[in-house]
Design brief:
This protein has 203 residues and is of the alpha+beta class. It has two domains: 133 residues; 61 residues, Arc Repressor Mutant, subunit A (Orthogonal Bundle), CATH 1.10.10. Helix content is 34%, strand content 32%. A five-stranded antiparallel β-sheet has the order 5-6-1-7-8. Strands 2-3-4 form a three-stranded antiparallel β-sheet, with no helix packed on it. The radius of gyration is 18 Å and the shape is globular.
Length: 203
């Protein structure tokens, strides 16, 4: 399974996600504490071990779990990538993965949304080289909730890809809004993201 950019300098994507577990989710990542500053997950086959460092306490908590069909790790295993759990904030899991292309992002997000209560695409970055150096970054956290919702759906459905046949009307229907409203949200989001990108370059 792929974890980081390859030594030959190929460009890849880093995807940062924020996921909320379903009510019946018995994952040891979140069962130990609602807030963790450090999380280590080792999932092999159908078993996993977790080490969690609570954000407000000393020490490390350890737990074991089963990698079931409704497990975050199972979704990544099926797509062929490794999830890196960064931390837990108020029960939400912040996870990063390095993937080959946007198709992989779509597969991961779609798979997670089938088993979890909420999945948010927080950040996408183009990385290169063995050290996964970022070359371009899209930070969706700067958008309004409605703008982010529109951009997330457009990315997941492949609206920005020339070889994917999905229309603005189809996306608008999914969001239960008009085409013009969605178009306005996407334009505003793109303008915000482009502005932020230029400001980052100036800095």
């Amino acid at each position: 399974m792929a974890e980081a950019a390859s030594d030959d300098g190929d460009r890849r994507l880093r995807v940062d996600l924020e996921v909320d577990p379903a009510d019946e989710w018995a994952c040891p990542i979140v069962s130990q504490t609602e807030n963790a500053s450090e999380v280590t997950v080792n999932a092999v086959g159908d078993e996993c071990t977790v080490e969690v460092e609570p954000a407000t306490e000393e020490g490390i908590r350890r737990d074991r779990g089963e990698v079931t069909d409704d497990c975050l790790c199972r979704v990544f295993q099926e797509v062929g990538y490794v999830p890196h759990v960064r931390r837990v904030e108020a029960g939400s899991v912040i996870v990063t993965s390095y993937v080959d292309d946007r198709d992989a992002v779509r597969e991961i997000v779609t798979g997670l949304r089938e088993i979890l209560d909420r999945v948010r695409l927080v950040r996408l970055a183009v990385v290169a080289g063995p050290d996964s150096i970022e070359q371009a970054t899209v930070d969706l956290s700067a958008l309004t909730p409605k703008q982010r919702e529109g951009v997330e759906l457009a990315v997941v459905r492949g609206y920005f890809d020339a070889d994917v046949d999905v229309s603005l009307g189809e996306l608008a229907d999914e969001l239960a809004i008009s085409k013009s409203a969605l178009s306005q949200r996407l334009r505003a989001a793109q303008a915000k993201l482009v502005t932020d990108a230029f400001e980052a370059v100036d800095d």
